[in-house]
Amino acid sequence: MVLAPTIPLLLRYAACSRAIAPAQGIACPDDLLLQLAANRLQVCEATVTDGNCGLHAFALGICQLAQRYAGVRSHTLFRKVSAAQKAGTPEVCRVLREAAISWMRANRDTPVWDGMPFAMLAVAMATFSGGFDAYLQHMSGNGVWVDAAVLHALACEFRVDAAIWQMNQDPTFVGISMSGPERGPARDVPILAIAMVNDLHYWGCEPMPDPPAEPHDASDGDVFRNFVGMSGSASSSDSGKRPHTDLGSGGDALDEPEIEMDSLFPEMPPQEVEAELALCLCLREWDPWQSPTARLTAAVQAL
Questions:
Q1: Do 104 and 118 meet the contact criterion of CB atoms below 8 Å apart?
Q2: Which contiguous run of DSSP H or E holds residue 66?
Q3: What is the distance between the alpha carbons of residues 185 and 70, in angstroms, rounded to a whole number?
Q4: 279: how many CB neighbours lie within 10 A of its CB?
Q5: Is the pLDDT of residue 164 over 70?
Q6: Is the pLDDT reported for residue 235 higher than 60?
Q7: Cα separation, 148 vs 164, whole angstroms
Q8: Which of 191, 199, 198 is nearest to 169 (CA)?
Q9: In the prediction, which pLDDT does 300 show?
Q10: Strand 161-165 and strand 116-117: pairing?
Q11: What's the Rg (C-alpha) of the chain?
Q12: What is the DSSP letter of 67?
């Protein structure tokens, strides 16, 4: 999987005016669903469509990470998010939006790409004229579509990375791993997933559930396991027989036919045993990338 750098995404990701989606929700494109499924991910259909979808998608992802990472659970901002959940999704989005604005204001002069400060990059992505303060004011509004700079700010605040999945593209990463001089996802940094169709909608993502375990097939050919499973433990006086079956109503018992172990596992002639052992020794010494040796060929023919 090719990991695209953060900054090219931010440069391509032009923030545009967004229309609020209908209340009944937005269907994720099939191509994007298949791309996510190939990576054991699925979208959270309950992601809100009131303009706060990016924040809600991030909230769903950070809650997934909190189940596995103590550092996320213990973060002060996550505790605020957890408390806000009692009041509902709008409050969660408000808390995250304020946290993102605070991070961006505090890190406005932080270099993010070849000496370009974060504030300059954020303004370059804005859809309206004005400086960085005007950008922050705009992003403070409830229901305003958040851009990649906001998601980057939230991921940095939580010290995680966010993988943004788009159709027919490798995921692009924003977050804490992209903030240092050596940008690139780090192995020890938690990563949350967000799906996006630009200018339309964000979806939170979650791992796909594991498929149900297949039931054991008693006819799978494992004779010894099936025999032991149906015979149970036999007493010393009945060591060669299966136990009696209680018929219940009459109190009678049925003697089932005796199974001879020798018939299940017949003894091999000594010459066959020696031939198989000789073949095993040849196979152990043989280089599978080379042609079979004369000794190996003779051992196979001996069987």
A1: yes
A2: helix 53-66
A3: 20
A4: 17
A5: yes
A6: no
A7: 9
A8: 198
A9: 80
A10: unpaired
A11: 32
A12: T
Q: Which residue carries 């298949």 as its tokens? A: 34
Instruction: Read off the tokens for 186.
Output: 């780090």
Assigned token pair, 90: 């709008």
Residue 278's Cβ-side half-sphere holds a number of Cα atoms within 13 Å equal to: 15
Buried b (16+ CB within 10 A) or exposed e, 82-114: eebeeeebbebbebbbebbbebbeebbeeebbe
Choice among 111-120, 179-188, 238-247 with the minimum mean pLDDT: 238-247
Numbers of helices and strands, H then E, in the chain = 13, 9
| C-beta neighbour count of 296 within 10 angstroms | 17
Backbone φ, ψ for residue 38 (5° rounding): -65, -20
Sequence-distant contacts of 286-291: CB under 8 A, at least 24 apart: none
Side by side, the strands of the sheet bearing 201-207 are 41-43, 201-207, 191-197, 161-165, 172-175
Single-letter code of the amino acid located at 46: A
Q: Specify the residue for token string 């079979």.
A: 292
For 99-130, what is each residue's pLDDT tens digit? 999 999 999 999 887 778 999 988 887 776 78
* Contact (Cβ atoms closer than 8 angstroms) between residue 14 and residue 122: no
| Separation CA 151–CA 148 (nearest Å) | 5
- E strand segments, the chain: 41-43, 111-113, 116-117, 161-165, 172-175, 191-197, 201-207, 245-246, 253-254
> HSE of 167 in the Cβ direction (CA atoms, 13 Å)?
11
Measured CA to CA, the distance from residue 188 to residue 109 in angstroms comes to: 27
